[in-house]
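Thread: quick sanity check before group meeting

JM: Hey all, I'm pulling together slides for Thursday and realized we never actually wrote out the predicted structure for the chain we discussed last week. Dropping the sequence here so it's in one place. If anyone has concerns about the input, flag it before I start.
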Amino acid sequence: MKIVNQSIENSQAMLQIEVETAEMDESLDRAYRQLVKKVAVPGFRKGKAPRSVLESLVGREGLHREALEDVLPRMCAKAIEEQNLEVIAQPQIEIMEMEPVVFKATFPLRPKVELGDYHSIDVARRPVEVSDEDVESAMDRLRERHAAWAAVERPVAFEDLVTVDVEEELKETGAKKLHQTQKLLVIKGSFFPLPGFVEHLEGMEKGGEKDFALPYPSDYKFPELAGKEYRFRVKLIQVEEKRLPELNDDFVKGLGQSMEDVASLRESVATGLKNAGEEMAAREHERKVVEAATAASKVEFPGVLVEQEIDSLLRERDMVFRERGGLQAYLKTMKKTEQEIREEFRPEATRRVTESLVLAKVAEQEKIAADEAEVDAEIERMVQGAGDSAEDMRKMFGMGTARHVVEDRLVTRKTVQFLVGVAESHQGKGEDKEETS
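JM (edit): ok, ran it. Output follows.
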């Protein structure tokens, strides 16, 4: 084997390798011995046909293909050993010449992370304030959730709930469908059942009928309906308006949350908003701290890690849309190819890989780890509420790769909290210095 060209960049070793004649002959001989056992050659018992006869049957290219499957992995393994490469995944191989065999192998190498001065991270946490207006808005939303619909004798207005009979007719074929006693919220700009439909209901009187035609938009999310025009005949059966409950002590007691009056509800709502705001601010602060640590570091990694992360994101998307046909149905709806979605995911995947490598390096440097008891406690937390499946989940997470995933997640969480602690330790120091001076 001769390495005739080599370079290393972006944590990838690119080697151009020439297979020497003796090495190729050895692989051709090995390929012949393997193929002759599999291929039935007329006039010979299986495994006994001469090489020249077998080669005339499968072709020279067929024998060379089999030989390449043997020689290329051996040459790659030899190159890894000779060059002392820390390879993390299978190489990409490109055949450049066949006689002699010359190929290019791109080996993904262990990422390189040079941490910046993460001990100097100084990121302030966003203060959380809850105003009286915030509390009142939340209480109004609570009343909205407990609102009742009441029938009214007046024309339809936006925000009403109507009951209608709808006859639809596809203009191009004349095919008709009848939808009886269908309830619709008359929300201005609504896309249901199609854009512009509810606007035609405004002002209708109970018992009245109305005919109109509407096309589905050309870019409608369901391609089978896009651009098609329908005629509608609508009969209005009932109009209902939303009536909010009065905000008083009886309403509060009816919520069943051990509160007796409006003042206690207001206090509870304010506390809930404050807690939710603090939780959101904490997540934002963690994200900014990790971003700061990453920005201060130099990270180099092979592209295969990004491709693997994109695969993970695609699996997540497939899980989310499984009930609606999975990823392929989503792609069809969005009128995009999988490659287009992969490119859209690439920035997010790159960010994830970069940050995870930085956090792993910080954990290594600071000797942050998760002990057995912490992993066991985390598994127990994860299986809570699993019911009859709890024991199976406990067994799954208690061994092998799944347990390591839980351990890695814990270490990552502890590392983020360590960096948050570093950032918080700098808060207030600027004011202290000013007061001292």
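AS: nice. The mean pLDDT is 88. The CA atoms of residues 160 and 271 lie 33 Å apart.
JM: adding both to the slides.
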